[in-house]
Amino acid sequence: QVQLVESGGGLVQAGGSLSLSCAPSGSAFRLNTMGWYRQAPGKQRELVAVISRDGRINYADSVKGRFIISRDNAKNTVYLQMNSLKLEDTAAYYCNGASFGPTYELIPGPILGSWGQGTQVFVSS
C-alpha cells in the first residue's frame, strides 16, 4: 500500500513562507493527479491545491495567489510553496490523490492508499 510522506512544516510568523514536500515511500508508485489537503483543529480536512501529472493546476479560493503547487515527476515529488501565510493557514498538511471537475474545480480523491502523518504548519502573529 502506498504511504505518502509529507515534510517541511514548522513554525512561521504571519506573512512568512514555508515549503512543503510530499513523496511516496516504499513502493515505486507513480504519482498522478495530486492534491494538498489541510486539516485545522476541529475542522474537516479541505483540499487546497491540485496538480495533474501534465501540470494543470487549480487552488481553493482561500489560498489562491499565495500558495504555489508544483511537482517533479522525475523525483516523484509534489511541492507546496506557501507565501504570505496567515493565522488561518495553521493546520496539518497532507498530500494525496485528487481530481479536477468539469470546470477545473477541486475534487478530493481518489485517495492513494493510507493517509500519511502529515506535516504541521503553525502560523503565529
Structural class: mainly beta
Shape: globular
Give the assembly state of these chains: single chain
- What is the helix content? under 10%
**E-strand count:** 11
**SSE order, one letter for each helix or strand:** EEEEEEEEEEE
Rounded Rg: 13 Å
Low-confidence stretches: none
Q: Look at the structure and give the mean pLDDT.
A: 94
Characterize the largest beta sheet: strand count, sense, and whether it forms a barrel. 7 strands, mixed
End-to-end Cα distance, whole Å, is: 40 Å
**Total number of helical segments?**
0
Q: What amount of the residues lies in strands?
A: over 45%
What are the main properties of this structure?
125 residues; mainly beta; 4-stranded antiparallel sheet
Question: What topology emerges from the helices and strands here?
Answer:
Elements: E1 3-7, E2 10-13, E3 18-25, E4 34-39, E5 46-51, E6 57-59, E7 67-72, E8 77-82, E9 91-100, E10 106-108, E11 119-124
Parallel strand pairs: 2-11
Antiparallel strand pairs: 1-3, 3-8, 4-5, 4-9, 5-6, 7-8, 9-10, 9-11
Describe this structure in words.
With 125 residues, this protein is mainly β. Strands 2, 4, 5, 6, 9, 10 and 11 form a seven-stranded mixed beta sheet that branches.
Briefly say what this structure is.
The protein has 125 residues and is mainly β. The chain contains no helices and eleven strands.
